[in-house]
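Per your request, structure below.
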């Protein structure tokens, strides 16, 4: 995948397929310390140690409709080529944590891509999931919680309402833009 937002969507979709009801996405970028860290934590069914050990093998997949799983192997290669790496912690019956690290300034680091559309896709297609998105860029922080949104609008179905989704998309885009000092996705 050429954009990190698509890798994030892939990881979150894996969390959903594993039965997660709570998914946290945290993105932390620090230009001074020169790092980008993406963390996805879920409370899905988790994986045993043997599966975690072989998860980066492209021929390891839980999908029933495909024979290869290239998402994590390619993401790991990309992270390692950019001075970072990937760690996966998982416990059967308790959930999984995926942490991906990049050297922020590395010339080959994939662009973030359309993160707002990714966030909106996750929310619109899974309104029943408690999705927490926290994005930190240097000292600025943006946080979005579907649990809090549902409490405000009073209805899970509202997260599928076109008017609310349009507002939510604009809200996420504007806050991401603010994180980067007014630039769309930090021009990355």
């Amino acid at each position: 995948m050429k954009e990190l937002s698509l890798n994030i969507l892939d990881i979150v979709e894996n969390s959903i397929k594993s039965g997660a009801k709570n998914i946290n996405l945290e993105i932390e970028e620090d230009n001074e310390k020169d790092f980008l860290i993406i963390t996805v934590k879920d409370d899905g069914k988790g994986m045993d140690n043997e599966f975690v050990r072989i998860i980066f093998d492209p021929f390891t997949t839980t999908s029933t409709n495909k024979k290869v799983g290239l998402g994590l192997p390619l993401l790991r290669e990309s992270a390692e080529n950019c001075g970072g790496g990937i760690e996966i912690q998982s416990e059967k019956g308790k959930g999984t944590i995926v942490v991906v690290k990049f050297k922020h300034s590395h010339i080959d680091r994939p662009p973030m891509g359309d993160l707002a559309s990714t966030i909106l896709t996750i929310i619109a297609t899974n309104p029943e999931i408690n999705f927490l998105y926290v994005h930190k860029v240097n000292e600025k922080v943006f946080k979005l919680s579907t649990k809090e949104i549902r409490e405000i609008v009073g209805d899970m179905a509202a997260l599928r309402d076109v008017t609310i989704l349009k507002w939510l998309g604009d809200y996420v885009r504007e806050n991401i833009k603010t994180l980067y000092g007014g630039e769309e996705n930090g021009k990355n």
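The beta strands are 22-30, 35-42, 85-91, 95-103, 130-137, 140-145.

Regards,
D.
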